[in-house]
Amino acid sequence: MQKENTSSSELFQLDGKPRFRQAFPQAMQHVLAMLVGNITPPMLIAGTLSLSAGDKIMLTQAAMIIGGITTLLQLYPIMGFGMGMPSVMGVAFAYMPILTMIGNQYGISAIFGSQLVAGFLSIFIGMFMKKIRRFFPPIVSGTVVLSIGLSLYKTAITYMGGGSGAQSAGNFGSGQFWILAIVTLVVTLACSLFGKGYVKVSGMLIGIAVGYIIALCMGGIVDFTEFREAGLISVPIPFHFGLSFHADAIVMMVLMYVVQAVQTIGDVSSTAMGGFGREATDQELGGAIKGQSICGMIGAIIGGLPTDPYSQNVGLICTTKVVAKRVFLIVGVIMLAAGFFPKFGALMTTIPQPVLGGATITVFAAITMSGIQLLGEQPMNYRNKMIVGIALAIGIGIEAVPDILQFCPQLVKNILGSSLMVSFLIVFLLNIIVPEDNSPAS
């Protein structure tokens, strides 16, 4: 009994060595919490860009591999790349509006070309984080996160209706699709709001599983052709999706990496405070961003989309206080292993789009509310309300009426056609130009 208790205490020490039978359940809890969030963005991008089934599987595999690589690098830093603390990394939903815009404009090769350049430049953000951090107070980061959440709703609703394939087939928004989306949404919410332990942290996974079973019972919705044809083991093919470089795409991706660096600061700070009871050091913050950046470059080569720390896993660390590296080593290894089995990726691609839509709208709602929560960290006085309001009004307004940019050069149209980019640029500049006002909310 004494040995068992001693081993359990090892879970709460960074360099602790808990027994496998104690570390593995903790690791699986983290895998379940991040799994759906990691595979969904590449599936949504593949669907939006109408990629082949094989490419869709490859994107899903690469998402697991790059998530595993980034998780392990953050855990075991190399030459200053990585933070040396536990973190579960995965493909970020926040990049989706920009990835979709670039992909629709130039194709998937432009996504990875701009990601390669932005990943490299983002390394310097990590190097000088201490100096530039003050330019991104909650009013800036909150506006950006809020804009990200709002811009993702169209994607979720489109998927709830059946996706672009259903639009072409003429059955978009059919009763079957509504049933799948709503049931998935209700189950996901029920688990997240009323569940405990594994059920609570795996609400999205359980919701998708229930929706998937109903889709199987309906018949004609789930297609296993690609799953049967997929191989057992596969290694990512470097540069399979190609690389192409376009100035506007690179600018948008660089700005997105800057925005995401701010969010990473928040997640790393939460991990340090919740898991270790202290503030994160500048070295840890910079290392986290540099690790994320170089893995973005690796991802561009093998087909893995940009990553960030998963907030749900940060929440798990803060709740359980389990910080042993051995636990997160197991998480990273499981993610890597899943990425080398095409059958896993092929099975994930059989999930119907209405099911994905019903599940992911909860994530997009959470992103939106996170933005509002961040904004609440600064007093909403007249200055701050007008800065945020103007940034969102112009950003969302231009995206809703794109013809207002018809006389602008194509480069300008591409950058300003995104509500996220416009809102970010306006709130960033106004926050610098308008004199500070720390008076109470009015």
TrEMBL record:
GO terms for molecular function: xanthine transmembrane transporter activity. The keyword ATP-binding does not apply. PROSITE patterns: XANTH_URACIL_PERMASE. One of its GO terms (cellular component) is plasma membrane. It is found in: Membrane. It is a multi-pass membrane protein. InterPro entries: NCS2, Xan_ur_permease. The chain crosses the membrane at residues 31-51, 83-102, 108-128, 135-157, 177-194, 201-221, 241-259, 327-349, 355-375, 387-405, 411-434. The keyword Transport applies. Keywords: Membrane, Transmembrane, Transmembrane helix, Transport. PANTHER family: PURINE PERMEASE C1399.01C-RELATED. Belongs to the nucleobase:cation symporter-2 (NCS2) (TC 2.A.40) family. NCBIfam families: ncs2, NCS2_1. This is Purine/pyrimidine permease. The lineage of its organism: Bacteria, Bacillati, Bacillota, Clostridia, Lachnospirales.
